[in-house]
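Tokens for chain A. Residues wanted.
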């Protein structure tokens, strides 16, 4: 006869993983059942993120396309608007009362005008002239300032001329009826 060793102590504990134990089988089953909704939730969240990313890409493409259309429309219309503005300015310049403006300068014959440069965008005429003496220069500027054609005169520079007399530069701002309608009034320097 053989010796038989019987151990009457139960070696199976609650914490022991034995596939034959009912607790282990139930624990694994509950873990798997709890994992399925979690997995489905994660899958759904990932699907929503993919859908949102696709929607953002589609929205960005639509915005880019609309901006491109708007830019092409602006670039198509801009030359027409610039051309219309130039045409309008040209028509207004031709309608300027140039005779009255020139007569205002010619009423005071003492000065010898060397250059005459109208800047109609600002409503200013830049003049370079020569005068025999300082007293004549002051009288010339006073008589121009009294003219209704000019709103303001600004003496920019004066110097003794090599050939004699005084060279001077001034700006004459045209009064409202003699200025282009869209010219901004200039503040005092």
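Reply:
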């Amino acid at each position: 006869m053989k010796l038989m060793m019987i151990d009457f102590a139960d070696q199976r504990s609650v914490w022991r993983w034995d596939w034959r134990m009912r607790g282990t089988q139930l624990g694994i089953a509950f873990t798997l059942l709890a994992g399925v909704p979690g997995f489905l939730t994660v899958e759904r969240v990932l699907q929503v993120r993919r859908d949102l990313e696709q929607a953002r890409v589609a929205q960005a493409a639509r915005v880019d396309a609309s901006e491109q259309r708007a830019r092409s429309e602006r670039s198509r219309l801009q030359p027409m608007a610039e051309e219309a503005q130039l045409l309008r300015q040209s028509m207004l310049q031709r309608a300027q009362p140039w005779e009255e403006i020139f007569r205002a300068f010619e009423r005071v014959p003492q000065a010898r005008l060397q250059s005459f440069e109208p800047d109609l965008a600002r409503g200013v005429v830049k003049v370079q002239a020569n005068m025999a003496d300082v007293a004549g220069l002051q009288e010339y500027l006073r008589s121009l300032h009294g003219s209704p054609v000019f709103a303001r005169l600004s003496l920019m520079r004066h110097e003794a001329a090599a050939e004699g007399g005084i060279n001077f530069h001034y700006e004459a701002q045209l009064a409202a009826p003699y200025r282009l309608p869209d010219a901004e009034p200039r503040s005092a320097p």
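Residues 22-94 form the longest helix (73 residues). Helices lie at 22-94, 98-106, 134-145.
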